[in-house]
């Protein structure tokens, strides 16, 4: 497989504390990678480095063969990187259809007919369970619908890399299962990297799991390898996973 995303000794310090410390990872095109770890492990800082919301203290980030270490978020987006946030990042004064139209136009070729754009918006809305909600503002949507809208906006841009930061926060069990199923339905042309605490989501989605601890990579392997790693069990999963194994 071909590497789509790579970090090389990536670090970010806040004062004297290295929230991310010389992290080197490779994400293959078409893969589903979960990043997990206890609170304060550096997961969100790493995500903000990948998305361009933070600049690294040291190290490099490669997307394909291009060095994107210093690129602004909007320039990364144009290259095919989309992300979600722990709190839904939506335009509060634009309706669902208006927001989806902006995303579809951004992804499409110039000169598309208005009817084509409207049809694409309907297709995205239907795919993410937002049919009949087009005239509503984000504040008029249920929380689960807001999360789905954010993901729909990201995917409407036709990204090659989708970064999901805690996409299931605040969702019910059924909504979590729906999220897992929707990620499974994404094509191999979309590579997914997600941060999550819910192990049902992690093990339901990921073909590879990276465990962070104190700003560094503690373990990196298949879900089965991570489940059986005693270091991960002691630091992150704790007694619950030990009992599950027994």
List the SSEs and their pairings.
Blueprint: E1 3-14, E2 17-28, E3 32-36, H1 43-51, E4 58-63, E5 66-67, H2 73-79, E6 81-83, H3 96-107, H4 114-127, H5 143-156, E7 161-165, H6 173-185, E8 191-195, H7 199-205, E9 208-213, E10 216-221, H8 223-227, H9 230-245
Parallel strand pairs: 3-8, 3-9, 6-7, 7-8
Antiparallel strand pairs: 1-2, 1-4, 4-5, 9-10
Helix pairs in contact: 3-4, 3-5, 6-7
Structure characterization notes:
Helices cover 39% and strands 25% of the residues. It contains 9 helices and 10 strands. The chain has helices spanning 43-51, 73-79, 96-107, 114-127, 143-156, 173-185, 199-205, 223-227, 230-245; strands spanning 3-14, 17-28, 32-36, 58-63, 66-67, 81-83, 161-165, 191-195, 208-213, 216-221. Strand 4 and strand 5 form a beta hairpin. Helix 3 (96-107) packs parallel to helix 5 (143-156) and helix 6 packs parallel to helix 7 (199-205). The radius of gyration is 18 Å and the shape is globular.
Number of strands: 10
What distance lies between the first and last C-alpha atoms, to the nearest angstrom? Answer: 36 Å
Report Rg: 18 Å
Mean pLDDT: 88
Residue windows where pLDDT falls under 50 for at least 5 positions: 239-244
Determine the strand fraction and express it as a percent band: 25-35%
Helix content: 25-40%
**What count of helical segments does DSSP give?**
9
Biggest sheet: strand arrangement = 6-7-8-3-9-10
Spell out the helices and strands N to C: EEEHEEHEHHHEHEHEEHH
């Amino acid at each position: 497989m071909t590497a789509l995303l790579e970090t090389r000794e990536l670090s970010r310090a806040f004062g004297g504390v290295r929230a991310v410390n010389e992290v080197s990872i490779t994400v293959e095109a078409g893969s589903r990678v979960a990043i997990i770890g206890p609170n304060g492990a550096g997961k969100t800082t790493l995500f903000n480095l990948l998305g361009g919301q933070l600049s690294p203290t040291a190290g490099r980030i490669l997307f394909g063969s291009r060095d994107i270490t210093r690129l602004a978020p909007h320039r990364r987006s144009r290259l095919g990187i989309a992300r979600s946030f722990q709190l839904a990042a939506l335009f509060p004064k634009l309706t669902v259809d208006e927001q989806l139209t902006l995303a579809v136009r951004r992804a499409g070729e110039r000169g598309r007919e208005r009817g084509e754009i409207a049809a694409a918006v309907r297709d995205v809305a239907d795919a993410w369970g937002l049919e009949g909600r087009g005239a509503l503002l984000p504040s008029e949507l249920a929380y689960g619908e807001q999360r789905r809208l954010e993901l729909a906006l990201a995917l409407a841009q036709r990204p090659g890399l989708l970064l999901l930061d805690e996409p299931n926060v605040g969702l019910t069990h059924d909504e979590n299962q729906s999220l897992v199923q929707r990620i499974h339905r994404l094509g191999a042309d979309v590579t997914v990297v997600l941060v999550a605490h819910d192990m049902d989501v992690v093990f339901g989605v990921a073909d590879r799991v990276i465990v962070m601890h104190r700003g560094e990579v503690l373990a990196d392997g298949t879900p089965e390898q991570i489940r059986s790693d005693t270091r991960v069990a002691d630091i992150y999963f704790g007694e619950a996973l030990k009992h599950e194994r027994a």
